[in-house]
Amino acid sequence: MKIRQKITLISSVLFGLVFLMSSIIIYFAFYQSSKNIYFQELSRTAKISAMFYLERDELSQKGFQPIQNAFYNVSPNEEVSIFDAQKNIVFNTKQINDDWSESLEKIKKEGELNFRKNDTYYHGLFYKDNQGDFVVLVKAKNPMIQSQKKRLIGILAISFCVAMIILIFLTSHLSKLAYKPVRNIIQQVNNLNLNKSPLQLSYTSSKDELEELFQAFNNLLKEIEASYEQQKNFVDFSSHELKTPLASIINQLEVSLQRNRSNENYRETSEQVLQDAQQLKNILENLLTLSNLNKSIQLKENIRVDELIWEIIEKLTPLYSAEKFNIQLDISPEDFHLLEFKGNETLLYMALFNIIENAAKFSKMKPVEIHLYKQKNQLLLEVLDHGIGVSQQDLKHINQPFYRGQNTTSIQGNGLGMSIALKIFQLHQIQFSITSELKNYTQIQLIFPVIPQH
Fold first, then answer.
1. Is the pTM of this model over 0.70?
2. Residue 435 lies in a domain
3. Domain boundary among 292, 316, 343
4. Cβ distance 38 to 121 under 8 Å?
5. 107-138 pLDDT, tens digit each
6. Which residue from 234, 448, 237 is spatially nearest to 352, judged by alpha carbons?
7. What CATH number did the domain enclosing 130 receive?
């Protein structure tokens, strides 16, 4: 069942229940009101009958005349019986055979009593007179109440049916209008094409929850579009980068197999093939690492950031001069706890290694400055090189896999190291910023999150 049909069904059922309860309340309220009015009429008849029978000897003819007229105008449907203190009938308008002993006692006790048996209504009045104590009992049937009850039930039933038909029609129409933006979303989503840009849904401003839904969906589409574009570029770049060493290996082997060569030539070819194979291996390892970074990582190891940096410097020293790295540690002994970090040591080592190695590689003969210091109770790490720098245009794409700056073509690399490093920093919630100036410097600043002390 569709949502629009559910809305119509639920609304109709709820309205039907409300209408049914209202009809029941109206029916009983009308019936109770009719009974009260009729009992008041019987009470008036009982008082007139008592005065007609018992007050004749105490009033003049002129004073008694209005009472007599009122008694003779009593409805013929109303039967009056008057009982004395011994429960004997002293006056009645119609012969009765029922035993009223129990009811007469209740009337004497209550003073006035209304009751009903089947379709007959009764009113009893205890009347004290100078002649003694009497009980006046008025009995009558009111066919008008019964006919009004039936008519009211019919009116309510017809009103219920007509109201339900109108409600179903209106609810169906209104739900169709309310559901129109949702159908619009479905239609636009079905027509979305990942190869067309921009990947967005159009909508009119309504200042309601549907507009919030459109905005949330458009934000999601932006992320999907960016992810798809990044994935597409990733495939293109990786294909190109893998193709280069493979083509070189195939070319070297084909050339070497064309004719017999000396051992020295075979050795040179083998070294070149080995170098290309090593490059291919590094690319595949980096691709595997980058792919695994999208998975959940357990960050539970206790790490000393300064010790990690010293390990990296020790690893890089054989490749560069001893004066290549200048390390400055501006952390007082009481703040050494800032150097402690909880994360994945292998990944963090790889990320720091990549940015420090890049700084050394792109700074040529100039030194790399590594600075550790405290700022606002947080550990800051700065890696500064005075090398070729990065243009502002290239900085926008620095986290993109395989992307390399226009001024790095002469330097060996595949453009994966920085994207891997920045992804690892992001997973560790380490804030990073990169500033650079062409042919002058590149500075990377890392802000480590505060680790609660126990």
1. no
2. yes
3. 292
4. yes
5. 888 888 888 888 788 888 888 887 888 888 88
6. 448
7. 3.30.450
